[in-house]
Structures are given as C-alpha cells and as structure tokens.
Design brief:
By secondary structure, the protein is mainly alpha-helical. The chain has helices spanning about 5-20, 25-40, 45-55, 65-80, 85-100, 100-110, and strands at about 60, 60-65. The protein has one domain. Helix content is about 75%, strand content about 5%. A two-stranded antiparallel sheet has the order 1-2. Helix 3 runs antiparallel to helix 4 (about 65-80).
Length: about 110
C-alpha cells in the first residue's frame, strides 16, 4: 500500500474513532473500494479525497450526513497537503449540500491545493 493511501486509511480510522463509528461500517460504506482504487490507479491525494467524498458522503448528489467521511477527508488533506482554512471547508460542505458531484468537488480541490 502506497504511503498516501495508508495516510488516507489512517485518517479514516481516526475519524471513525472520533465519531464512534465502527471502522468496518466505514469500509463497507465505500472506503475499502476507494483505498483499493487509489492504490492501483496511483491517485493523487486530491483525487483520493474527492473520490472518498463522492463515494461515501453523497447519495443522489446530496450530502448524506456521513460526517465521518467528511472528517476523514479534512484530516487527510490537512496532514498531506495543508489546511485551506475553515471557510474553505465550509465552502466544500456547501458544495456537498447543493451541487454534490465529483466534478464540483474536484474543482474545489484544484482551487484549494
């Protein structure tokens, strides 16, 4: 497993513990597939985060309130890249609530990192 993929997994473990969500539930919610695809396709940290959000946190283009996924992405991005700040994360949350799709998330990633 690549270092960045392991870092995403570790951020997910940490977020699951913090939110008191069984890690196995997070894996079954799509994390496992994202980790496998990220490793085999050599995704960038930004793409891994975008894919995790789109897979685990969106249902029919809207935020499904899976807070642990959002927290895992914030933790991962802060550790791997840098913190874009509270306002940037509020903007991301608004994207997830209104125009939730992978392309909108990718545009946010590009503007922040």
């Amino acid at each position: 497993m690549r270092r960045e993929v392991r870092a995403l997994r570790d951020a997910a473990v940490q977020a699951a513990q913090f939110q008191r969500v069984p890690f196995r539930d997070f894996l079954q919610a799509g994390l496992e597939g994202v980790l496998q695809d990220a490793d085999s396709n050599h995704w960038s940290p930004q793409e891994m985060a975008a894919q995790l959000l789109a897979t685990c946190c969106l249902t029919d283009g809207k935020f499904n309130n899976f807070q642990v996924g959002f927290l895992a992405v914030m933790t991962f991005l802060n550790e791997q890249l840098h913190s874009p700040g509270d306002q940037a994360y509020r903007d991301l949350a608004q994207i997830l609530k209104t125009t939730g799709n992978i392309n909108a998330i990718r545009r946010w990633m590009e503007s922040q990192f």
